[in-house]
Amino acid sequence: MATFIVRRVLWLVVVLFAVSVLVFLIFFATPGVDPARQMAGRNPTAETIKNIKHEFGLDRPLPVQYGLMMKHIFVSRDLISYGSHTKVIPEILSAAPVTLSLVFGAAVIWIVFSILTGLAAAVFRGTVIDPLLMILALIGISIPVFWLGEVVNLVTQSRLHGFFLFSWVPPLGYTPFTQDPLLWFEGLVFPWLTLSVLYIGFYARVLRANLIETENEDYVRTARAKGISERRVLLRHTLRTSMITFVSLFGLDFGVLVGGGALLTEVVFGLPGVGLLTYHSLTSLDLPVIMTTVIYGAFFITLASALVDLVYAWLDPRVRPA
Hints:
The protein is mostly helical. The chain folds into two domains: 2-75, no CATH class; 88-319, MetI-like fold (Orthogonal Bundle), CATH 1.10.3720.10. The protein has 13 helices and no strands. The chain has helices at residues 2-28, 35-39, 46-56, 62-75, 88-123, 129-142, 145-159, 181-214, 218-225, 230-261, 263-268, 274-283, 287-315. Helix 7 (145-159) packs antiparallel against helix 8. The chain is globular and about 80 Å long. It starts with a helix and ends in a 7-residue tail after the last helix.
């Protein structure tokens, strides 16, 4: 198992290196594109463009350019945004806790409720409860996140804010946990619920299908033949194997969301996370910020993929390395 973990860590490093090279080539080595002119803003002078080229080493060979860029990002961490004229790394580090808070809370909600919904649908298959739960899940999948968020804000921030059920809801924005834990929690409750609705429906349907399929496996029938209780067969054998697909999907979705995929939720609820930062950098074509946030997102996606492989090995001994 230790060898497997080391291999996954080495593979993570290789993937991140490949992503950083690819992103650098796309933004700084595309034929016909002058990144210095793009970063200089509107109507730049020749002197400004020359200074930018010298600062980023764009007047030097490509390998040197790449090395200098990675040095600015990972070593000296003094890469400057040409939109806000501030250091990029501190911007991302200040935005990351917002996104992590949003995604972690939503992930807890969608894991718990999707497992409960999927189990209930599988257990009560053939009754009215099963199609009712699947219809609710399909409705959750179909609702756009930005629309649901706007409706939630309309109810909690405007129409019914004076009602006792929603009078505790704070204004839109983010309060750091270290500043006020209670206000941090209150400000994220509805963003968590909004972001998790889609995933609850999708994961519940996937889990239900896997549970029904797994019931026909030989080892499940063998467990029942041994006289093991139906509850233990469901939780110890059927659910554990059915969670493999669940875990795979969760790892990829979680990595994407932490890497900036929760953009719509952040915009609707005024959360200054990585997704919102990436969106602003794209609209202003702020190449240093775009490149750094892409590498940041790639890190979490590859890390999530590595963790998924480890959970695979725990859930199913057949995939463990010899």
